[in-house]
Batch of 2 targets.
Target 1
Amino acid sequence: MVLILNGPNLNLLGQREPEVYGRTTLDELEQLCEDWASEFGLGAVCRQSNFEGQIIEWIQQAKSEGFKAIILNPGGLTHYSVALLDAMRAQTLPVVEVHLSNIHAREEYRRHSLTASAARGLVSGFGPYSYKMALAYLADALKKG
C-alpha cells in the first residue's frame, strides 16, 4: 500500500493556474493514482492537507498504518520546510517526491527542492503522469525488496 500525500493548495487543482498545473482536479488526480496503483499491483491511499503539521504526522505514522512507501507532492513546502525534510529523514519508508510542473523551469525560488534530498527520487514536469512514474518505480522497488 502506497500513501500519496499532496500538500498546500493542491486542493485547488483544476482552478489554480491551469496553464501551470493543468485542468485535472484533485479528485480526478486521486482517482488516476488509485487506478495506476492497481495496474501496478499496489493499493493507494490519497490524502491532502494545507497544514504542514498534518503532513508531517501522516509521514510519521505511515509505517505503523501499514504503508510500504510514500509519494509526496509537498507543494510550496518543497522549497523551505526543514520540518518536513526532518520528518522524511526520520522514517524508513521509500519516498518519491513528485511535482506536476517542472520546478526547474519555474521562478528562481521554486527551482530548488529542499525536501528532495530525503527522497529516493524526484519526478517533475509531467503533470499527473509524474505520479504514474513514481508508482511504477515504487512497484518495482517494492517487488525487489
Target 2
Amino acid sequence: MKLVFAGTPAFAVPSLEALAEKFDIAAVLTQPDKPQGRKGVLTPSPVKAAALARGIPVLQPEKLKADFSALAAVRADLMVTCAYGQILTQEVLDLFPLGVWNVHASLLPAYRGAAPIARAIIGGERETGVTIMKTDAGLDTGDMFLHGSLPIAETDTCGTLTEKLSVLGAKLIVEAVARIARGEVVLEKQGEGSVCRKVARTPVDFTRPAAEVSALIRGLSPAPLAYAVCGGLSVNCYNACVVPLPEGAPAGMVVACSPKQGLIVACGEGAVRITELQPAGGKRMADTAFANGGKLREGARFDQPVL
C-alpha cells in the first residue's frame, strides 16, 4: 500500500514520522517554501524538512486544485492530510482508491475549520482531542473514524496543547491506516457542528471575567498573541492564570507588579496574573522579571479596547 502524506506545520511532523516507520510513504505534499525573517530567506516547512531528512520525495504545488498532475503520477492508494493548508477538490479526492484521511485537532463535529486548538481554549473547553475523518469536499464534514481525547489544563497555551495533540494525532493515524489496510473501517456520520474562525492578534478586555481573559491570552499564545496597553506601554501577553481579586479594584487596574507577586490585573470578575509577557521593544520574560524594571506600578490602569 502506497501513501501520500500532506501536511505543513510542526503539528504534522509527528504524524509523518510515525507513518514513515510503519508504511511506504511514496511522496509528501506540503506548502511552498515561505520567506522568513527580516531578510526574507525562503524556508521549507517543518514537514518538508522532516520528509527530506528521510529521503521522501516532496511535492509543493502553489495551487493544488490547478496543478495536481505530479500527485496523480504517484499512483498512491491512500492519502493522509494533517494541517496541509489547501482545500482538496473532488478531483484530488478521487485519485486515492482507499480514500483521503484527515488528522483534525478537535472532537468533531465541534470546532471544524481553522484554529480548532486555539478556539477550544478560548471557548473555555475542559476537553479536546483529535478526530481521524474520511475527507469529503466539505469543510471538515466527512465521516468520522477514530477519536482520541485529552483534558485541557488550566496552564495550557495553544502552543503546549498543540504539542500534546500532535502526539495523540500521530498515534491515532497509525492505528487508522493499519485498520484501513486490513479493511476494518466503520465510519460514523457527523451531526450538527460548529465552525471556528481563524484567530488574530487581539486586545485584552479586562472588563470580561478573569477566566475569559486568561483563556484568551493562553489561546492566542505563542501567536498571534493578545496584547494590553497601559498608558504608553504596550505588552504582548504569553501566559496567564486566574487569581483572587482584592475588594474595590476596578477592571484594568494593576493590583500588583512586584518581583514577589508578579503582574496582577483586576478583571470584571476576579483577576489575572499575566505570568509571561513581552513589553514593546523588549524580550519575552516572566512577570517577576518584568516587575524589576519598574515600568508599571500598583494602581496604574490598562486602557480598555475600543471594540
